[in-house]
Amino acid sequence: MWAKTQYYFFLVFIFIASFLLFKCKSIASVNIFSIKEIPFPADNELTKDKIELGRKLFFDKRLSINETVSCATCHIPQFAFSDQKNVSEGVLGRKTERNSPSILNSAFLKTVLYDAFLPTLEMQVIVPIQEHVEMDMSMLELIKRLKAIEEYQLAARKIFNHDFDPWVLTRSIASFERSLISNNSRFDQFYYQKNKNALTKSEKAGWKLFSEKLYCTKCHPAPCFTTFLPDKNGIFKEEDKDKGRFRVTEDSLDIGSFKIPSLRNVELTFPYMHNGSLNTIEEVIVHYSKGGKDKNYSNQIIRPFKLNSSDINNLKLFLYSLTDTSYMKDFH
Ligand code: HEC
Ligand code: HEC
Description:
Blueprint: H1 2-28, H2 48-58, H3 71-74, H4 121-130, H5 139-147, H6 150-160, H7 166-178, H8 186-191, H9 201-213, E1 230-231, H10 246-249, E2 258-259, H11 281-289, H12 309-320
Antiparallel strand pairs: 1-2
The structure holds heme C (HEC) (2 copies).
One heme C (HEC) is lined by residues 214-216, 218-220, 231, 233, 235, 258, 260-261, 263, 266, 269, 272-274, 284, 288, 299, 301-302.
């Protein structure tokens, strides 16, 4: 009788132990945004075929009026899908008003563009296509052009079961963008995968500065290093033409407010800020250390601070530890 009870206890013990073991393992291997967890809207399920079609369209210059500019002209894979220019260049050398942001991890954006206004990637696709300084193409013309390309028309019929149209164009490009994930930086290995040796002493000191001594994580918290909200960090100046989110809301409180960008891969995405006005991480640190350039357009959180040169270097090295180019394996 006693032996039987012991046996039951033993079974329960094994059950609890294996449960805990499993639980710990799943915590240890938890991936901050694993492919399986990529969110997508109800009307655009993420599928391999759509991603593949979107990828072809993304690199296709026929999307612009004179067939010289593709999405990838300004969102270049090896630069984390930004272009390392202050502002970008569209058709006929026309300049954009803003700096091209990385679109890695854009599946997690709560709103799209610096105005923090457009709700989905699908809606964003048509903006650069029709924009005079970017691709300058009429949607009507473009659909006619792309429908006449057999490969695209066949793919549209196969995947969406209808002719190539704006729905096919926007759904597939947005799907391709959602597939661009960068989440295995050395910081991720240190912080999420609990590999203590993944960061150097300097990088760990930089992370401490960033997250504890300074105030950076108030607006740039892990895992995405942004809250996705618009805010003011003092880059905007009274005389600037680009008034930020005010442009779409016309609320004076939104003057100088821009969506907080992710800091993942900042090593590759210079120059910085909506207008590309700061060229290096050192310049960014100086900007914040002065409490933001224009205090009228800066959140109160941003206060002046003093760092010595080794602190500045540590902070920079930490930011560079957010680089993860493993996504490039699909772009050679
Ligand atoms: C001429 C350069 C240029 C071209 C071509 C271009 N973009 Fe962009 N892209 C930009 C710039 C500049 C911004 C920032 C604009 C803003 O926020 O107002 C941007 C912003 C974006 C964003 C928003 C990212 C975020 O964090 O909110 C996405 C997504 C995007 N582009 C995708 C595309 C796609 C898809 C195409 C092709 C259909 C494309 N872009 C073509 C320059 C370009
Ligand atoms: C009150 C919110 C806030 C705080 C606090 C804050 N930032 Fe920012 N950060 C922003 C906003 C908003 C932008 C974009 C501004 C623009 O484009 O004009 C930005 C942009 C940046 C960029 C440029 C990214 C890019 O791709 O262009 C870097 C780098 C950066 N911040 C680092 C930091 C560091 C380091 C700290 C701490 C010292 C910090 N931020 C604190 C709001 C904040």
